[in-house]
Structures are given as structure tokens and as C-alpha cells.
Amino acid sequence: MTILTMIAKMSEGLGRTCAIFFLTLLFSLPLGMLVALLRMSKNRAVSTVTKVYISVLRGTPLMLQLLAVTYGPFYLFGLGVAREKLVPVIIAFALNYAAYFAEIYRGGIESIGRGQYEAAEVLGYSRYQCFLRIILPQVVKRILPSVTNEVVTLVKDTSMAFTVAYQEMFTIGKQIANSQTSFMPFVIAGVFYFLFNAAVAFVMGAFEKRLSYYR
């Protein structure tokens, strides 16, 4: 099998890899903000439950979480395994990354001086207006490098979907490598992940430049 043929076959799973990446960000970024706010809640019960959620999701392997979400309903409740594996894959990825983003958000929010909240209150801003118009833009600027790091990790973590036999690019490459006894599919996959991450770094770098006026 030629290199071009390998690339053509692996490209069949490229769309699925991109789907995992973009859908995970779509759900985990806002969910992470919600989790962060719950984590900072003055209600001790809410804060404690959120701490446990973050601790469990960050303290256990993503691979285990993928298996739990995909096959857990069958073993625990006798429900059928989802035919479309993308749904449990996205649920597992979104829950996992939301826990990481939540702590990044929390660190950014807590880094803002209390005086800014008090100044906004004096100027007549509501708590919602203060957070949305004053605090959040500064938080975004401060946490962008950390968020970029997690997004880069997500690009590579999409390959974990092979755990539940989801046919993304790396899974197909692995199958080709086994059938052809060739390491070339892994080289092709490595080049793809490198280029994908280079694009992510470029886009996130552009965002940082746009927000440089907060310095």
C-alpha cells in the first residue's frame, strides 16, 4: 500500500477526529465556566459536590471515563450500547475537559482584585454587568495561555477514542499499520497532529494579540 493510499484511507477518519475536537470545545468551554461558578459558590453543599466532580474527572484516566460513559449504562442498568459512538465519546470528553477548564477559569476569576468589583458597584453596575463587561474580558486574557495548552492536549487526546472502537483517524491508521506491518500510518498521524496543533497555536496566538490592549 502506497503512502498516498494510506493518507486517503486515513482521511476517512479525519472528519471524525475534527468532530471530536470541535464538539468537545463547544460543550466543555461553557460547561467549564458553569462548573467554576458552582465551585466558587458560597453554598457549601454545591461547592463540595463540584469539588468532588472536578477531583474525580481530573484524578481518573480519560480512557476509563470513555469506557464508563460508553459501556456503563449497559453493565449498570442493562441498557443497550449506543450504536453511534460519537455521542458517548463527546459526553466523556466534554465532562473531562470541563473539569480542567473550570479550574483554569476559577484561577483567572480569583486573580482579579476585589477593588474592581467595588469600583463597578460604585459606578452602578449590577453583579452580572460587572462580571460580563469588566471581569470576564480580563479573565479571558489571563487564562488564554492555559486554555491554549489544554486545547493542544485535546488535539492529541482525540486519539483516545480508539478505546471504544470509534473510527477516527488514529484508529484507522492503527488498523492499516497492523494489516500492512508498517509504521508509516503512525508517521502520517504524527504529521497531522503536529500540523493541527500548529494551526491551533497560530489561532490562539492571534487571539492573544487582539487582547494585548489589556496589558
Please explain how this structure is put together.
It is a single chain. This protein is an all-alpha fold and 215 residues long. The chain has a single domain (3-214), classed as MetI-like (MetI-like fold), CATH 1.10.3720.10. The protein is 79% helix and 0% strand. It contains 9 helices and no strands. The protein has helices at 3-10, 14-39, 44-59, 62-77, 86-110, 114-122, 127-157, 169-180, 184-210. The longest helix is centred in the middle third of the chain and has 31 residues, at 127-157. The radius of gyration is 21 Å and the shape is flat. The N and C termini lie far apart (54 Å). The mean pLDDT is 86.
Q: How far do the termini sit from each other?
A: 54 Å
| Total number of beta strands | 0
CATH third-level topology: MetI-like fold
The name of the CATH superfamily reads: MetI-like
Specify the number of helices: 9
**The CATH architecture:** Orthogonal Bundle
Given helix and strand content, the structural type is mainly alpha
List SSEs in N-to-C order.
HHHHHHHHH
Task: Work out the count of structural domains.
Answer: 1
CATH uppermost class: Mainly Alpha
Name the shape in a single word.
flat
Give the amount of beta strand, in percent. under 5%
Unreliable segments of 5+ consecutive residues: none
Mean pLDDT: 86
**Largest β sheet strand count, sense and barrel closure:** none
Query: Helical amount among residues, as a percent range?
Result: over 70%
